[in-house]
Amino acid sequence: MIGPNSIIKGEIAGDEDIVIEGRVEGIINLHGNQVSIGESGNVRADIHARVIKIDGTIIGDMCASENVMISKSGNVSGNIVAPRVTLEDGAIFKGSIDMDPAGIASKEVPGTSQPLTHSAASHMASPGLDLKSV
Which position has the higher pLDDT, 122 or 76? Predict the structure, then answer.
């Protein structure tokens, strides 16, 4: 556990679950484990984990192999890649969600060499929100 009065800058990696109640800036790599951000947690980091639970604040991109859960007290600004995403009523979220991380289209993002995901391709093809791809 990272306590509410703790500040960590850098990379966190390991083979166990972690609860963040303090402030973290950097990168969190716990691929096979769970990262929980408590209500007093304030994270400015990209997170890679099996499960990510957010009750606090995060600015950064998240990649989970199983699930991302944002509670009603959660405040997220960043992109999510996970097969399952849960947003409770009252949660604050600004970013994109990719729930088909394996489905990469053969197209690339214009002006870059980055592959374009199916959902991103659908959004670029139509000016409005395509609910079938979300």
Answer: 76
Neighbours of 101 (CB within 10 A): 13
The Cα–Cα gap between 133 and 30 comes to 29
Please classify residue 46 by burial: count the beta carbons closer than 10 Å to its beta carbon, then call 0-12 exposed, 13-18 middle and 19+ buried.
middle
Give the lowest-confidence range in 4-18, 42-56, 107-121.
107-121
Distance separating alpha carbons of residues 25 and 128, to the nearest angstrom: 35
- Given the structure tokens 């980091």, which residue do they identify? 45
Residue 1 lies in a domain: no
User: How many whole angstroms separate alpha carbon 25 and alpha carbon 100?
Assistant: 28
> 92 and 110: one domain?
no
